Amino acid sequence: MPGFHYVPFNDIEALRAAIAQLDQGQPHVAAILLEPLQGEGGVNPGDRDYFQQVRQLCDDTGILLILDEVQVGMGRTGQLWGYQNLGIEPDIFTLAKGLGGGIPIGAMLCKSHCAVFEPGDHASTFGGNPFVCGVATKVCQTLMQEQLIDNVAARGTELRSGLTAIAQQHPTLFAGVRGWGLINGLVLANDTPIKSIDVVKAAMAQGLLLVPAGPSVVRFVPPLIVTAEEVQAALAKLRSAILTLT
Ligand SMILES: Cc1ncc(COP(=O)(O)O)c(C=O)c1O
Fold first, then answer.
1. Atom of ligand 1 nearest to the CA of 106
2. CATH architecture for residues 12-145
3. What digits encode the pLDDT tens for the residues 152-178?
4. Range list for CATH 3.90.1150.10 in the chain
5. Nearest Cα residue to atom 6 of ligand 1
C-alpha cells in the first residue's frame, strides 16, 4: 500500500526518528501498524517495553496504534489476542486466518473513538456475508466454550520445551526457539549450511507438516486442538527428520 514507511521492529529510537523525519514540525503520521509477534518475519515476538513505549507515544501524539492480529489473534498465542502478551491495547486491530477456522473471513475492530467507517466505505463482493459470519461466530463460541486457549498455553509449553531440547542437542544446526503459545519458531544457527526449507522437506518426508518463516526459521503452528500425544509424536517425527539431515 502507498503511504507506508518501514522501520526496524522492536527499535523505539528508529520509530521516533522516522516520525520526526516525516513530521518536519507538522503532525503527519496517521497510524503505526505492527504485528504483536511477526509471523512471516521469522516468528519474532514483540518486546514488551517497546510496545508499551509505542502505546505511550501514540497516546501522547494522537497517532493511532493498529495491530495486525491475523496470525496471532483468536487464541494462537495462549491469550485471546496477541497483544495481551504485551500489556497494551491497540486502537484498531485486524483479524483473519483463525477467525474462520478454515473458511475465508477477515475483520477490522476499532475502538469507538476511531470507528469512522460507514457501510460502503470498504466495498467487498463477499465481505461480511451471513455464511462466513455464522462460521466465525461458531468458531468464537467453540474457542471459549471448549477452553481451547488453556490447551494452547499447555501444549505450547510442551512444544517449546521439546524444541529447545532438540536445539540444544544440535547446536551446529539450531540457535534456539522463540514464540508464544502455539506459534513457535526453531531458529537455525548462523553458520549452518541448511535452510528452513530443508528442515520442512525432511519433516514432510516423515509425515510432519511445517512451514518456513524466512530462510532461517522453521515455524510450528499446529491446530489449537492439538493433544499432548500429538505434540510428542510431532517432536519424534522432527527428531527423525533431523537425523536425515546430519
Ligand atoms: C500477519 C498477516 N497479516 C495480514 C495477512 C493478510 O491477510 P489476508 O490474506 O486476510 O488479507 C497475512 C497473510 O498471511 C498475515 O500473515
1. 10
2. 3-Layer(aba) Sandwich (3.40)
3. 999 999 999 999 999 999 999 999 999
4. 148-245
5. 70
Q: Is the pLDDT of residue 218 over 90?
A: yes
- Tell me if 70 CB under 6 Å of ligand 1: yes
Exposed/middle/buried for residue 81 (C-beta within 10 Å: 0-12, 13-18, 19+): buried
Distance CA 71, CA 43 (A): 10
Grid cell locating 7: 522501520
The pLDDT of residue 227 is 98
Atom 5 of ligand 1 has which residue's CA nearest to it? 70
- Greatest Cα-to-Cα distance within the chain, rounded to the nearest angstrom: 59
Give the whole-number percent of the chain exceeding pLDDT 70: 100
Q: Is the pTM of this model over 0.85?
A: yes
pLDDT of 206? 98
The architecture of the domain spanning 148-245 is Alpha-Beta Complex (3.90)
* Cα gap 147→226, rounded to integer Å: 13
* Sign of the Cα pseudo-torsion (69, 72, 75, 179, in order): negative
Residue 69 Cβ inside 6 Å of ligand 1? The answer reads no
Q: Where in the chain is the domain with CATH 3.40.640.10?
A: 12-145
Mean pLDDT of 78-99: 98
Please report where in the chains the cell 489449537 appears, as a residue: 224
CA of 73 to the centre of ligand 1 (A): 11
Nearest Cα to Cα of residue 107 among 147, 83, 74, 77: 74
Pairing of strands 44-45, 37-38: antiparallel
